[in-house]
């Protein structure tokens, strides 16, 4: 036992030695021994002794080159939560000091919280962690390392647990890592997450990448050699790295931008790392001299770093074979910050000035926690948190040239409130690049936005709450209403509640209504019904949450007039939707229409095909052809057996009236004659079939393969397209899908 234990920590000590930094090995050893003793007799789902987990987390933390206290906290991070009978924070503080105790506290879940709602408890834990993080960023570094190790070892957990953890990783931790610029951890989290959420999609993309990489090796080697030669000629000291995009980033591109794998050209990028900033620009010049660059793809993140501190030059150029590829140019310091983000920053600089700098980078978190503190609704907090971390930023300019970073999709109103609440509250209009625009206009990268204010404006409009994108703007607007117009808020809140109660009015007397309101107010912790109305009026409480509680109260005091099935949350949602709502996809999954579905890119099913659905978590139901090889393979895995659901087309026979248009892939084998592609295009145009993408390549035997993506209504339509194409001169064969 002793022996195994000491092997564990010796690897950690080796790692620490390798960093060249000074560590208090005695203290770390003591933390390890203490944790090992506390966790003795506990085991992980994999069967390993529990202590292997904190040690592994400490090793990941060591990789970030954090300090002694962080390593100790990583070793101790689960002790207070899991061994509460044997230790507590006081004890940890006595043994390891206040800093370690504070870090461990930030990593310990609130378990004693008295809320029945699991979700609320969960959000409170998240809030606690963010609060701890805003005080000391090391908390989140260690938490991310903890999550990373849990994701790496997730296979040992039961299936349902895996999906919940993976989803939370994708929704909270990966975006958080992104926001902190910690790309390396973010990418690993995303790839691991996707493996559990959409295993079929993951494998599909992974196989595509491997085969494309294999086919492109020659091209890549050529480019590398040419560039290396040229840089050496110019006396530049450089390191050249090739990098394949991650499975998740390609998956996201395919499904977000609706592309087939063939259309993703920049799956491969070259990275050139040099010593100085000046050399970055020199290298850029050399690259642009060697290759044609694609306009609009050059980005100078050195002079304008991303808000998460990322700096580099990006450009996309076209190689000799006409294949575009991306080149990233950066210095070593930029490289470390690109991979480790704020953690690298923390490591590079220490002292008071860096503390201030890091605090500035984390300002958005404190802002989020503070401003959301007076919001009573935890679900709303989570929503605000997700929108704030989940965005890609756009950069817009004030007329003076200051850069304001906003989440993508932000409007002019968001911009106004980002400058100052006084600007937002007095806004009467806006100009973008000198032209008057509506205030709900979404701002785009690089635009100059000018807010027109007037002292005659009384304040923001309530409608703005549903227009703005940032929680900052929403909170500031709410604050205005909260302060400025209690009477009006109460009136608005009252009418919201009255409307809600009208649904049940036939069953309720006025006295009963009053009882319900007082009960609601009391339950939600308001001093009076007016306070409840007020909060509802300025938007501090959402109607969805309230209507559920209203139903609860009504069920308590009234007996339904006639036996009526219990109304569930979903029913209400369904009822508020337009009745004629049809699923856009034209698919019925397991008897239900209107499910979020996506069409698998491996087989692109068409109406009329036999299909089957695979339930991904958070990415909708993925629809495959029943005979798709991924389905045949995937169904062999008994673990995912319950994720396959039957699916069929909404209008299987009716081809004419379906307005949906689908994508079909065609692979056409042709003799290598001039003009064949033109003939094909004409034939398709005659049939009113749209060509969505095309590419072709020559085979060694002189024949060509043309890959076409076309619009298509259903399988009959598809068959008619195929027979038409087969009748053309020079076409030797047509098959479905790309291979
Ligand atoms: Mn842990």
Quick overview of this protein structure:
This protein is of the alpha+beta class and 739 residues long. Helix 4 (68-76) crosses helix 7 (98-107) and helix 6 packs antiparallel against helix 7 (98-107).
| Name of the CATH first level of the largest domain | Mainly Alpha
Architecture per CATH nomenclature, i.e. the level-2 architecture of the largest domain: Orthogonal Bundle
Ligands: manganese (II) ion
Main sheet makeup? 6 strands, mixed
Essential attributes:
alpha+beta, disordered N terminus, Ubiquitin-like (UB roll), binds manganese (II) ion, six-stranded mixed beta sheet, Beta Polymerase, domain 2, Hypothetical protein af1432, 739 residues, 31 helices
Question: If you had to describe this structure to a student in words, what would you say it looks like?
Answer:
- There is one protein chain.
- The protein has 31 helices and 21 strands.
- Mean pLDDT is about 80; it is low at about 1-5, about 560-585 and about 655.
- The longest helix has about 35 residues, at about 200-235.
- About 50% of the residues lie in helices and about 15% in strands.
- A hairpin with a 5-residue loop joins strand 7 and strand 8.
- The protein binds manganese (II) ion (MN).
- Manganese (II) ion (MN) binds next to loops.
Spell out the blueprint of helices and strands:
Blueprint: H1 2-19, H2 25-39, H3 52-63, H4 68-76, H5 79-82, H6 89-96, H7 98-107, H8 118-135, H9 138-152, H10 159-179, H11 183-197, H12 199-233, E1 239-244, H13 247-256, E2 268-274, H14 277-290, E3 292-293, E4 299-300, E5 313-318, E6 324-331, H15 332-340, H16 342-348, H17 352-361, H18 363-373, H19 378-389, E7 393-397, E8 403-407, H20 412-419, H21 421-425, E9 427-432, E10 435-437, E11 449-453, H22 464-467, H23 471-484, H24 486-502, H25 510-523, H26 529-538, H27 543-557, H28 569-576, E12 587-589, E13 592-593, E14 597-599, E15 611-615, E16 621-625, H29 629-634, E17 644-649, E18 662-670, H30 676-686, E19 691-698, E20 704-712, H31 715-726, E21 731-736
Parallel strand pairs: 2-6, 14-16
Antiparallel strand pairs: 1-2, 3-5, 4-5, 5-6, 7-8, 9-10, 9-11, 12-13, 12-17, 15-16, 15-17, 18-20, 18-21, 19-20
Helix pairs in contact: 1-3, 2-4, 3-4, 3-9, 4-7, 6-7, 7-8, 7-9, 8-18, 8-19, 9-11, 10-11, 11-12, 12-13, 15-16, 18-23, 20-23, 23-26, 24-26, 25-27
The structure holds manganese (II) ion.
């Amino acid at each position: 036992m002793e022996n195994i234990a000491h092997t564990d920590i010796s690897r950690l000590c080796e790692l620490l030695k390798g960093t060249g930094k000074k560590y208090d090995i005695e203290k770390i050893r003591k933390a390890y021994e203490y944790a090992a003793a506390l966790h003795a007799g506990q085991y992980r789902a994999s069967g390993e002794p529990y202590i292997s987990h904190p040690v592994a987390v400490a090793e990941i933390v060591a990789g970030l080159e954090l300090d002694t206290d962080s390593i100790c906290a990583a070793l101790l991070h689960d002790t207070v939560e899991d061994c509460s009978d044997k230790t507590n924070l006081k004890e940890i503080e006595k043994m390891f000091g206040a800093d370690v105790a504070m870090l461990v506290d930030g990593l310990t879940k609130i378990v004693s919280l008295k809320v029945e709602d699991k979700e609320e408890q969960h959000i409170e834990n998240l809030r606690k962690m963010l609060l701890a993080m805003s005080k000391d960023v090391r908390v989140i570094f260690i938490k991310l390392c903890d999550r990373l190790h849990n994701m790496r070892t997730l296979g040992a957990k039961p299936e349902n647990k895996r999906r919940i953890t993976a989803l939370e990783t994708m929704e909270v931790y990966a975006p958080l890592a992104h926001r902190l610029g910690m790309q390396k951890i973010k990418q690993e989290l995303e790839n691991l997450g996707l493996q559990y959420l959409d295993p079929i999609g993951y494998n599909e993309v992974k196989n595509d990448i491997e085969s494309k990489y294999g086919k492109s090796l020659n091209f890549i080697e050529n480019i590398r050699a040419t560039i290396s030669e040229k840089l050496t000629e110019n006396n530049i000291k450089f390191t050249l790295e090739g990098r394949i995009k991650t499975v998740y980033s390609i998956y996201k591109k395919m499904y977000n931008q609706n592309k087939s794998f063939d259309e993703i050209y920049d799956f491969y990028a070259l990275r050139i790392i040099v010593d100085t900033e000046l050399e970055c620009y020199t290298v850029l010049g050399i690259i642009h001299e060697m290759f044609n660059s694609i306009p609009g793809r050059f980005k100078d993140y050195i002079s304008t770093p991303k808000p998460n501190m990322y700096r580099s030059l990006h450009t996309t150029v076209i190689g000799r074979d006409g294949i575009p590829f991306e080149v990233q140019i950066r210095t070593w310091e930029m490289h470390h910050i690109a991979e480790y983000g704020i953690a690298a920053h923390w490591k590079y600089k220490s002292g008071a000035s860096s503390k201030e700098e890091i605090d500035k980078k984390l300002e958005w978190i404190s802002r989020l926690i503070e401003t959301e503190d007076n919001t009573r609704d935890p679900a709303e907090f989570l929503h605000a948190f997700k929108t704030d971390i989940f965005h890609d930023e756009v950069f817009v300019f004030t007329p003076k040239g200051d850069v304001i970073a906003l989440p993508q999709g932000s409007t002019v109103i968001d911009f106004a409130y980002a400058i100052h609440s006084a600007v937002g509250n007095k806004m009467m209009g806006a100009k973008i690049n000198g032209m008057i625009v509506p205030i709900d206009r979404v701002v785009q990268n690089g635009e100059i936005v000018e807010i027109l204010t007037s002292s005659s404006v009384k304040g923001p409009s309530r409608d703005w709450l549903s227009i703005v994108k940032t929680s900052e703007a929403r909170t500031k607007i709410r604050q205005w209403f909260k302060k400025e117009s209690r009477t009006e808020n109460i009136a608005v809140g009252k009418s919201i509640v009255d409307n809600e109660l009208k649904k049940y009015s036939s069953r309720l007397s006025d006295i009963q209504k009053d009882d319900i309101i007082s009960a609601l107010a009391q339950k939600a912790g308001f001093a009076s019904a007016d306070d409840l109305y007020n909060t509802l009026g300025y938007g501090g409480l959402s109607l969805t949450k309230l209507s559920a509680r209203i139903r609860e109260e009504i069920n308590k005091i009234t007996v339904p007039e006639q036996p009526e099935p219990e109304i569930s949350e979903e029913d209400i949602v369904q009822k508020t939707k337009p009745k004629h709502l049809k699923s856009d996809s034209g698919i019925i999954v397991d008897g239900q229409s209107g499910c979020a579905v996506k069409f698998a890119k491996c087989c692109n099913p068409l109406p009329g095909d036999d299909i089957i659905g695979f339930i991904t978590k958070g990415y909708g139901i993925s629809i495959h052809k029943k005979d798709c090889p991924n389905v045949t393979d995937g169904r062999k895995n008994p673990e995912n057996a319950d994720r396959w659901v039957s699916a069929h087309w909404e209008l299987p026979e009716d081809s004419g009236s379906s307005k949906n248009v689908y994508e079909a892939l065609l692979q056409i084998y042709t003799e290598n004659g001039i003009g064949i592609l033109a003939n094909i295009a004409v034939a398709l145009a005659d049939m009113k079939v749209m060509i969505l993408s095309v590419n072709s390549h020559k085979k060694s035997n002189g024949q060509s393969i043309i890959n076409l993506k076309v619009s298509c209504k259903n399988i009959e339509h598809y068959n008619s397209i195929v027979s038409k194409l087969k009748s053309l001169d020079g076409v030797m064969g047509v098959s479905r899908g790309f291979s």
